[in-house]
Amino acid sequence: MSDKKSLNIYETVPQKGFFGHPKGLFTLFFTEFWERFSYYGMRAILIYYMYYQIKDGGLGIDQPTAASIMAVYGSLVYMSGILGGWIADRILGSSKTLVYGGIFIMFGHLVLAFPGGLTTLFLSMALIIIGTGLLKPNVSNVVGDMYSKEDNRRDAGFSIYYMGVNLGAFLAPLVVGTISNKYNFHVGFGIAAFGMLLGLIVYWATRKKNLGLAGTVVPNPLTKPEAKKAAVRFTAGAIVLVLVGALLSMFGLLTVKSFTMIVSILGLIIPAAYFIVMYRSKKTTADEKSRLIAYIPLFIAAIMFWAIQEQGSIILATYADQRTQLNLGGFKIEPAWFQSVNPLFIIVLAPVFASLWVKLGNRQPSTPKKFSYSLVFAGLSFLIMIIPAAVNGTSTLVSPLWLVLSFLLVVIGELLLSPVGLSTTTKLAPAAFSAQTLSLWFLTSASAQAINAQIVPLYNAKTEIAYFGIIGGLSIVLGIVLLFMAPKISKWMRGIL
Ligand code: GLU
Ligand code: ASP
Predict the structure, then answer these.
(1) I need a labelling partner for 223 at 20 to 30 A (CA). Which of 234, 342, 413, 439 fits?
(2) Contact 180, 188 (CB under 8 A)
(3) Best CATH choice for the domain 17-220+252-492 from the list 1.20.1250.20, 3.60.20.10, 1.20.950.20, 1.10.3730.10
(4) Could you identify the atom of ligand 2 that is nearest to the CA of residue 170?
(5) How many A from CA of 102 to the centre of ligand 1?
(6) Is 0.90 topped by the overall pTM?
(7) Which helix (H) or strand (E) holds 122?
(8) Cβ(48)–Cβ(59) under 8 Å?
(9) Ligand 1 site, residue 139, Cβ cutoff 6 A
(10) Which residue minimizes the CA distance to atom 8 of ligand 1?
(11) Residue 167 above 60 pLDDT?
(12) How many A from CA of 306 to the centre of ligand 2?
C-alpha cells in the first residue's frame, strides 16, 4: 500500500473515543472478542464431543483419532489465512472479507447446534476453516489501518486488541463448558454461534461510524488478465481437489489418517515454498536476504512453541478429563474450564511483561533470546507434567494445580514470543511481501499443528511420561541451541532489533 493511501485511510478514522485510541478499536476489539469467544468456546468442548460415548452425547470416536482431528482442524484454521489475506488484498478489501468470514463461522457453529454425527462435524469444520481464514488475519489488518505508521499508540493498540482476543478466550470455556454440561454439547455449540452473531452485529452496526475507510480499500487489485488467470487456476484447482477426493474415496483411501498425512505434509511444504519464493525474488535485496535467513530459526522456534501451546486444548484437555481430580469437596470442576486458564494468565501477566520491557529499555533481551527463553518455559510446562505420573503412577487422579502450573509456564513462554512474533515477522519479511506477513506468522501455528496431528495420537496413560518428557526436553534443547545462536541471528538481522 502506498503511503499516500494509508495516510488517507487513517485520517478517515475518528482518532479518539476508545481509551485514547481510535474509535474503531472498539469495533474491532468486540468483533474479535466475539469471534474468539465462539472459536475457543467450541474448541473447549470439541474434543470431548468427539471422544465421549454416544450414550453420553458424544460421537464415540476413538481418542487418538479425536486428538489428531483437533490438530488437523487447528492447522487448517490458520493455514486458510493465506486465502483470506489474498482475497482481501486483491479482490474484496479486509472489511468485506471479514464479514463474509464471520457469516461462514456463524453457520459453522450453528451446524453443530443440531445433532448430525460425523457429517455435521466435518461440514462445521469446513465452514469454520474457511470463515476463520477470511476473518482473523483481516481484523488484525484493519487494526493496523487505523494508525499512521509513525503513531506511537500503534503497539498499545495491538496490545488492547490482544486483550480482546484473550478476554473472549477466557470467558468462552466457562460459559460454553458450563452450559454444554448442563444441557448438551449442541446447546454449547449454539452459544458459540450466537457469540459470532453478536460479533457480526457489533461490526456491522458500528463500522461506518467508527472505521471510516479502514479496511475498505483493495490494496493491490487484480487486473483483468490476472483475474481471468486466477479464476482459471481456482476452478482448475477445485476440480483437481474434487477429483482426487472422489478417486481416493472410491478406493476407500480417503480416511482421517490419509487426510491427516496430507495436511501434515502441507504444513511443511507451504512455509518452505514461502521462504524459497521470498529468497529468490528479484525484489528481495541483499539485506533482506540476510534477514530472511535470520527469520528461519525464529520461525522454527515459533513452530515448536505453538506445538506445545496448542496441545493445551488437546492433550491437557484430555488430561483434565481423565487424570485430574475434578471433585473438590463436593464442588465439581468442568474439564472445559481449564481452557480458561491460559487466557486468564495472559490477561493478568501481559501488562507485567509490557512494563518489564519498558523498565529494561535497551537492556531487555534481544528477540532471538526472548524466543529461546520462551521455548525453555514451554518445555518446562510439559516436563513438570512428568512428576505426578512418576510419583503416583497413572491410575490415580492428580490435583488440578498441576494443570494450572503447566498453563502458567506456557503462558510465560507465550508472552515472550507471541506479542513480539508478529512485529518481528513484519520487520524481517522482505518489503515486497509485506502484505502477506500476517499469513506468514499464522503459518507458524498452522505448521505446528500439522506436526501435532502426527504426534498427539501417541499420548495415553502408558506413554504419558515419555510423551511429556521427550516433547518438553526437545523444546528445551531447541531453546538452548537458539540461545547459542542468538548473537549470530541478531547479526543476520542487520540492524533490526
Ligand atoms: N491465541 C492467539 C489468538 O487466538 C494467538 C494465535 C496464534 O498466533 O497462533 O489470537
Ligand atoms: N492465549 C491464546 C491467544 O492469545 C488463547 C488461548 O489459547 O486460549 O489468544
Answers:
(1) 439
(2) yes
(3) 1.20.1250.20
(4) 8
(5) 17
(6) yes
(7) helix 117-145
(8) no
(9) no
(10) 442
(11) yes
(12) 10
